[in-house]
Amino acid sequence: MQRILIDTDPGVDDALAILFAMLSPELHIEAITTVCGNVSVEQATQNLFTIFGLLDLNEYPVIAQGEAQPLVKPLVTATHVHGDDGLGNTNYLINADDNPVYIPADIDPSSLSGVDLILEMAARYPDDLIIVALGPLTNLAKAIRKDPTKMQRLRRIVMMGGAFEAYGNVTTTAEFNIFVDPHAAHEVFQFGVPIHIVPLDATHQVVLTGERLHAEIENREDTVSCFLWDATQACMEFYRQRVGFWGLHIHDALPIGMLTHPEYFESVDANVQVETTSKLTNGMTVADLRPERRPRNPNAHVCIKVATEAFLDIFFERLQ
Ligand code: BDR
Ligand code: CA
Fold first, then answer.
1. Could you give the maximum distance between any two Cα atoms of the chain, in Å?
2. Residue 159 pairs with which residues in a beta bridge?
3. Residue 251 catalytic?
4. Looking at the whole model, is its pTM more than 0.90?
């Protein structure tokens, strides 16, 4: 069993990742912290309540709201991809009796800030806690600034972010999570705890098509299945118009799969650097992944390959 803290900006694919993690016995979610990114941090926290409300649980992980702005840049959101509420507008769906279709869980967040909850968890589980970062790295960078000694005792950071041999998804060279807060990403990569990064190079290998999703949830009426369909429709429409297929990449689910089924993922050691100053390539992640150029002092393991079908099978198995 692996002890994890998820740092997230839900986000449709974040929601799928959180459900996947909560339904995976290999993982124990000690805490979840929210961060600004796909949506404002307040909306991100609200979305976490909606996600928790989908599952009938007696106990929830402790949650705390994190940073509302990136370290330096003004916030850029992705509501054009994820819907105005970040969850494909599922928060706005109303039943015939005028009640929300997806009722948020009624729980109180921690009185700690996201940064302080990260530090408390790092101190409580030294050398054991894995942080799974599914959004911009602002909370992590601030936690490192505030108490590097505690953060040095993380077991590792597993993150979705970056693009190396693939094009970016915000600009030609930058992936969203790094683009939103490149300064934070730079500080995290310089810090020296083990990092596993799942970039677009890997997440683009997994396409959840509308047809596959339809086939998986056909004849199912449980809340999670209905949510899977409702939450992904706006996103799939975006992909249909802008990318050319009816489906979506479920980026943030991949780091969860990497923890539950590491054998489905292939990574290489690399020295990852983040561009923070250039206007043209701001937020670009740079590393030489060629086998003959392996670095002597790598700061990260970069995922380059995923067993796509095996991954999707386990994803759907867990979400049933
Ligand atoms: C990343 O950006 C966000 O929009 C997604 O949630 C994911 O974390 C993909 O580039
Ligand atoms: Ca995300």
1. 64
2. 133, 197
3. yes
4. yes
